[in-house]
Amino acid sequence: MKILGIGNAIVDVICKVEDNFISQNNLTKSTMKLFFNENEFKNLLINLKIEKTVSGGSVANSIVGLSQLGNKVGFIGKVSDDKFGSNYEEGLKKENVEYFYSKKKEELPTGSCLILVTPDSERTMCTFLGTAGKINEKDVNSDVIKKSEMIFLEGYLWDEGEPKKAFDKAISNANKVAMSLSDLFCVDRHKPHFLNLVKNKLDITFANEQEITSLIEAKNFNEVINFSKQLNKLVVITRGEKGAIAIRGEEIIECDIRKNLNIIDLTGAGDLFAAGFLHGYVNKLSIKESLDKGTEMSSRVIQQIGARLEI
């Protein structure tokens, strides 16, 4: 298998809202808020019209993108034996992703993420992790990891306790490890742990400019470049309008964004960028070609609703 993703198994629930919905519910636009109270989460959904539901989660989106590009891929993520859990499993199988998890009835329901798309195409996420965030080392199959060329992890999944043990087990059995830092709040919550992962455990780190700047508390982007050079690993950074950059030792490769796009929804832009880049990487394309493929994939997904390419 080319790549095995390990991440939050989350059913994405996509809704269009006006800007005032964001402010009225004390949300911060373009970020992800975790909900720990199921009823509070359900109350948000009550008056909204659902555009569509998808078997999501950040790494799962990337893995589906990799599958659509013709790669043999798999996914590990924790669901409960409920309606959303069954939908989740079926959704991945339809996308030719091998799902390495046997669901059973859990105390918490399958996780879901409410994706609120405002008229400016920005997305604001409200996530109730449910059982997804309770992943533990027993949920991670060492043999499957050893047979994969690379594992791809998400920062969203990292947490003290059981998820950390699951991460440690996965990393110690992996041939190569890539990870996305996922979200600025994530980075700020787990800064010392993420810094340790980036410096000592990861072969490839994906981040946006905000996330990596916060991680190393850089004053400017030159500091980010110098930090990344010293790692002597592969650091891939998306920079919004400034395109994307990959740094490996002294080698710095840049890629511009695509122009004149009809941007509808930015959901999944980072996930599909990672899919395109990893597709290039595992198929022995150059770093420049991998950046181009990532840019192409993210450009396509932001011109439609949701984090899945309609092929």
Describe the protein's architecture and organization.
- The protein is α/β, with parallel strands linked by helices and 311 residues long.
- The chain has one domain (3-8, 58-107, 131-301): 3-Layer(aba) Sandwich (UDP-N-acetylmuramoyl-L-alanine:D-glutamate ligase).
- Helices cover 38% and strands 22% of the residues.
- The protein is built from twelve helices and 14 strands.
- The protein has helices spanning 19-24, 38-45, 58-68, 83-94, 142-146, 162-173, 184-189, 191-200, 209-215, 221-231, 269-282, 287-301, and strands at 3-6, 10-16, 32-34, 50-56, 73-76, 98-99, 111-117, 123-128, 150-154, 177-180, 204-208, 234-238, 244-248, 251-255.
- The strands form two sheets. The protein has a nine-stranded mixed sheet with strand order 6-5-1-9-10-11-12-13-14, with helices on both faces. Strands 3-8-7-2-4 form a five-stranded mixed sheet.
- Helix 4 links the parallel strand 5 and strand 6.
- Helix 3 packs across helix 11 and helix 11 (269-282) runs antiparallel to helix 12 (287-301).
- The chain is globular and about 50 Å long.
